[in-house]
Amino acid sequence: MKKHNFSAGPCILPEEVFQQASQAILDFDNSGLSILEISHRSTAFVNVMEEARELALELLNLQNKGYKALFLHGGASMQFLMTAYNLLNKKAVYLNTGTWSSKAIKEAKLFGEVIEVASSKDKNFSYIPKDYSVNEDVDYFHCTSNNTIFGTQIKSFPKVSVPMICDMSSDIFSRELDFSQFDVIYAGAQKNMGPAGATLVAIKEEVLGRMERDIPSMMDYKVHIEKESMFNTPPVYAVYVSLLTLRWIKANGGIKAMERKNSEKAGLIYNEIDRNPLFKGFAAVEDRSAMNATFNLTDESKQEIFDKMWKKANVNGLSGHRSVGGYRASMYNALSLESVQVVVDVMQELEKKA
Amino acid sequence: MKKHNFSAGPCILPEEVFQQASQAILDFDNSGLSILEISHRSTAFVNVMEEARELALELLNLQNKGYKALFLHGGASMQFLMTAYNLLNKKAVYLNTGTWSSKAIKEAKLFGEVIEVASSKDKNFSYIPKDYSVNEDVDYFHCTSNNTIFGTQIKSFPKVSVPMICDMSSDIFSRELDFSQFDVIYAGAQKNMGPAGATLVAIKEEVLGRMERDIPSMMDYKVHIEKESMFNTPPVYAVYVSLLTLRWIKANGGIKAMERKNSEKAGLIYNEIDRNPLFKGFAAVEDRSAMNATFNLTDESKQEIFDKMWKKANVNGLSGHRSVGGYRASMYNALSLESVQVVVDVMQELEKKA
Fold it and tell me: Which helix or strand (DSSP H or E) is residue A74 part of?
């Protein structure tokens, strides 16, 4: 029996994507070959890569606006490095909203001066700093749109006069934004887009080519763009499953429809967190993430019984990250409202028992 | 109907691996979850990673010899960079036996002086240079064990007094060697080990830690070793399918048995290339690869008819790389002797028609 999967990532993908992804292992598009054994230079796979790159830009409404999409190896952690390699000449501004921002800052420091313009570390990253401004004399501004671990999300992005880079690993394709306000968007696939092993990068080409640094080929966005995201053998299967997921998003109403459903799910669980005296939310209310709801028990002694109850209800992955404790309900695009209702029911059941 | 897949990589994997890999997408080990949606920090996946790392060392007979195995993102192309990042202090020696060696040399030059000790470029990389020696005052010696594009393979490795790094992407697990003669072995998974998207690195730990350079976390072997190959979200599925393939190798007699079967397949096709007046081999006879047999028609006008014939025989991926032309039969571990016989039969059929 399928579990209600609230895992923070890798995470749930649409059931029909799993079905198609499984079939393609046995026989890809009636080719007599598995998707795992076809050449990445075959027409069949070149078509997969091209469709995935185009569809990503289409869903983000970035077509014909000077952007290129790439599917690269390495996860967002590799992008902490690649963004700095390609764009950090002298100094850059970073907003520190949690673990992933902190890691991005650490890597960027190897390439130039890093100005941490604001940080919510003072309150264990439970809010999004808002009072800061970004000077014009820096190479770029970097931020993390959604903080998986702490359950916060940037609702309004600052207006800056320098290129803006955003790590959207945990909320890309989940809500409507003017994506053209960003010059580089990157996202590890393993939340709303596909399995672990591929990373989407959408780059406004005009921000490239300003560096004097020698960039190794695998680190160089221009090389990957020139080679149409096939400089080396790409992570074929992760790209293919990402394409299946992007097709599913499009067929189900695009980002607009995803956002509507995600708001409904988030509303359902946050209402219960606020209503139920046994629970309290972790993140500042105005900064709550629609993707990852973090919450704690008001009485920690109920942990054992609550854990038993949600596991019995066939729920997976509800334990919080060690930095926050308590619980985290990750509600990516593919998670159903019914799954959230199951958790809410268990929370109410716990209240009745108390 | 399944094709006879001679693709150079990504390439054929064992049929039972495809079956297991397909099933795990629907339900991984009766967990009620897909392998694509489980957390990489779950016990189930941590066990996969640990077994894969151990089994790789076991098959290479490198257990308890100071080596660590890692499954990293990025393919061998990333290792061109990582090996230099971690080990090239001042200068290093590279043997240039083809496209992949040349690429490794190009990336290493960003990190220090590179001495190309020998090259077979003078004859379009159709042989392996043998008369060279490696000075003691360099950081390491780098070579490519098998050249997929040109169909050559190093049969005997030089004795060197410096660390030896070997790119074994296209022949790892295919033949018995004293693997402990190497200090770093790396291999993109997508030939004998699994699907594209993961890279095995086996490192003798004692060669690390000699650099003064700041190494970005994702580039740093020590970081990946310390984090047990989970510094960031690993390419979960590619690692899992690699594990399935390693288990298949072990269950089928290990590298020794693979080598026996590979010799038989190589013998079959090379005999036909040498016997059949319509064909000639590309690589120097003593340097012929058991993995990739490269050959050309003696009369190019027969190309159209030969291409039609092997395609009709349900053969896939026999066309040679553009650098060599003609044909390339890639005969990785999972390819059967029967598939090679199909190609040999077509070659003989062409001869009868002539």
Answer: none
